[in-house]
Amino acid sequence: MKAMTFEDCRQFQRYEFLLNSLEEKVKKPNIPLERRKFLAELHACIHNRREEHRTLFVSEYSEDPEDNF
Q1: Nearest in space to 47 (alpha carbons), one of 20, 7, 10
Q2: Distance between CA 51 and CA 11 in Å, rounded?
Q3: How far is it, in rounded angstroms, from Cα 15 to Cα 54?
Q4: DSSP H helical segments within the chain, as ranges?
Q5: DSSP state of 69
Q6: Can you give the residue ranges of every domain in the chain?
Q7: How far is it, in rounded angstroms, from Cα 41 to Cα 9?
Q8: What's the CA gap between 5 and 39, in Å, rounded?
């Protein structure tokens, strides 16, 4: 079983940073509703991509997802 590489770790940090930033912006009432809807859709896309990456990573490196994270 392989350990998570540095690049894998960096990619997941990027996902988390983007998701957290978008969550904060979506909650701000001073941002127009259409913009918040767009940000929410973008958040969903990034979340889905992160899960796809996680699934590929887990299937490639380990039988048990908990071993990798």
Answers
A1: 20
A2: 12
A3: 11
A4: 6-27, 33-61
A5: -
A6: 6-63
A7: 24
A8: 30
How far is residue 54 from each of residues 12, 22, 29, 44, measured CA to CA in Å? 9, 20, 32, 15
Which residues are within 8 A (CB) of 54 and not within 5 positions of it... i.e. 6 or more apart? 12, 65, 69
CA distance linking residue 24 with residue 6, whole number of Å: 27
Instruction: Report the C-alpha gap between 7 and 26 in whole angstroms.
Output: 29
CB distance 39 to 23 below 8 Å: no
Per-residue pLDDT of the chain (69 residues; tens, 9 = 90+): 456 788 888 888 999 999 999 888 888 889 899 998 999 999 999 999 888 877 776 665 555 555 544
CA distances from 30 to 13, 22, 47, 51 (A): 28, 14, 24, 30
